[in-house]
Amino acid sequence: MPVQDISDNKAFLTEKVIKNYSGIFDKSSLSRIASIRRDTVDRPVIYIGTGTCGIISGAKSTLDKVRKFIAENKIEASIIEVGCNGFCSAEPLLDIQLPGKTRLSFHNVTEDKAEDVLNSALHHTVQADLVLGQYRQAGLEEWPNVRLIDNLPWFSLQTRHILKNAGIISPASIEEYIVRGGYKSLYKTVLNYPADKICEIIEQSELKGRAGGGFLTGRKWKIALDTAGDQKYMICNADESDPGAFMDRAIIESDPHRVIEGLAIASYAIGASQAIIYVRSDYENPLKVLEYAIKQAREYGLIGEDIFGSGFSLSINIRRGAGAFVCGEETALITSLEGQRGLPKSKPPFPAEKGLWGQPTVINNVETLANIPGILENGPGWFKSMGTQSSKGTKLFSVAGKAASTGFIEVPMGISFSSIIYDIAGGVRDGNALKAVQLGGPSGVCIPPAELDTPLDFEALSGIGAKLGLGGLVILDDKTCMVNLTRYFIDFLQKESCGKCIPCREGTRKMLDILNGITKRPKEESAHETLERFKGVVQLENLAHVISDTSLCGLGQNAPNPVLSSLKWFREEFEEHIFDRRCPAGVCHDLRTFYIDVDPCTGCNICQKKCPENAIIGSVKMPHFIIESKCTGCGICFDVCKFSAIYFK
Amino acid sequence: MEAIFEKYSLKKPESLIPLLQEIQEANGYLTDEIVEKVSVHLNIPTNRIYGVATFYDQFRFKRRGIFHIRVCRGTSCYLCSSSSYLKEIEKLLKVQDGSVTRDKKFSLETVNCMGGCSQSPVIRINDTYYHHLSVSDLGEIIRTLREKSE
User: Fold this and answer.
1) pLDDT tens-digit profile of A517-538?
2) Which B residues 60-99 touch A at CB under 8 Å?
3) Which residue is closest to B49 within chain A, CA to CA?
4) Among candidates A540, A354, A61, which has minimal Cα distance to B130?
5) How far is CA A233 from the centre of its chain?
6) Which chain A residues have a beta carbon less than 8 Å from that of B74?
7) Segment A258-279, tens digit of pLDDT
8) Which of A360, A384, A408 is at the close of a domain?
9) Is A492 helix (H, G, I), strand (E, B) or coil?
10) pTM tops 0.90
11) Which structural domains are found in chain B, ordered by start?
């Protein structure tokens, strides 16, 4: 073998680091690795989280400010853009690492605060109100009186394997991924194992698909491997169409090479030489990150022709989804890739036997693939040691809605809802009471506080009629109207129904009509609409069962879930809407009844002038009154009153 | 457009969606002429192209305004009352979801999710994101943008 010039990092990393089985390095290599890992820095390093959550919070302005500050003060410092560490409500996050000292993290550093934070940290003092914590780094001097970041409630209960690099490394640097053990599993795989052995290892680990179905990933691969085909395809589903879930986006933005490595191993295992990553088109930043990462991996020879001289070749292409919820469904995704409307097909045949262009195709989502390098590195036994009887490993969840802290987390399977909500996310925002947790996207279920001790795994959840889905948790507080929220979900699903099969297309429409009838006017009980509304309500549950039993794909089969779960656990609220025509949370605007409080009313006449129904009477400078039978509940009077004299029940 | 066609010179039917995506990016929106040209290029009937283009949310047949406002309607944003923001914008600009103001300055669209659920409610105007706004801030933002465009 010719002697490799390892003066540049690329050769050093591919020859010396990836191929080093023992993990034992000589001294010069160790110091080189430490400098790439940034365990030791020779000048200050400033890290800014520029994932989508950071960008939304204003990280780009912070970044500009930091650059300007450094240029103006002629400070020699490096600026590194990182992804997100998961604590999204603390974005924009700004970290500073001074030579010899541990990395210090600051939260909510908006543009106006950046200068102060930098100024004090560079002078070795800490802005106490903005500091989040410091990282645990052996051998470096700790900052006095600053807590360790892994002691924060948000992080202390997590088990971070997929997210171990998130927010720490630069997603634009393949080098950092490699020195943290990256691409070693791929190397091991393609040189040492035949494809069926990899399928076996993954099956032994009992890894189940993280996109909801819960099918054993290894078994799916084995089916595709054993099916004869001219050209097999491996597809990474990064469509993540569930509103309220954003873990896949976060993994891609924070640690894209983990996904690419997982995808490459999966492709090898099923015998595919072509892989496609199907990314949502709204995900502009993840797209950019991924494109760059693939380019880097190609330059390093980690994908492309004849990887590590093993004879295995792989090309990875990115395809942008054009925005259709149904394309999260495997068969619909495939038809979309074939250039058609994303309509699902009936299964079987499953894509693993007959998928893209009729060839064996495996579709795994981002999180499933991100698990793969870890399993091959540490063995299936390691993976199986985490989690519960029916569900192994760790799972990512995103926490959004009315939680005190929001973001994404990685926890062992089997943790309970209550420990995520109360111990990790710090409960409900503004001290409000928790009403329910919504799990699994629009076709998921709302789980009441009484069921919060349910462990989050496939088996226990199906016991209460729920599905894990992608793992998006949305926290609902007591100001939420469950009927209105159910209506919102059905409205969403009705719009996103592809229209192929009748139960889903017509059924969701009918469910929406019924729910609209409940949440909208007329309020009086004598009209024809009332009779129709009531007939609908009687049929609602029955209709829901018919839709879930007869629909073609997962979208339709799961579409009635929000209705069924809300009826099961929040029936009183439905009854209150139907019988009393009242929305206890005050969210269903049409059901509000307005009154005028005579004391604060000055008789200014504005409400009377603005009322489109002439439902307000009263003379100038005398208190006014609303004629209830004429009032349509539009709320204009409430908006225009300057004296807060109008209230509603 | 010729350059984009050249990129997809293999005329494979699966190129339809990426091709339309790139044309829309360059042109801003799709037109009947574009559909006809694509039909000739890929040898796909116009009705099928129109069928595909109207199936997906991403494709539009209307020009955008100078400022394109996107209001997120994802679950988390919906809970954080994104609909009141939508209503306020509709009131301020006198446009409906999916349309453009008469002076062609503003267009309004609702989107399913921007992936910023932890920051909800999220509104995006061109490339700038706004989050945790109060409804009354919207008037000020729109006024500034309108002045900027004059």
Assistant:
1) 888 876 666 777 778 888 888 8
2) 73-80
3) A340
4) A61
5) 25
6) 243-244
7) 999 999 999 999 999 999 999 9
8) A384
9) helix
10) yes
11) 2-55 (no CATH), 67-149 (3.40.30.10)
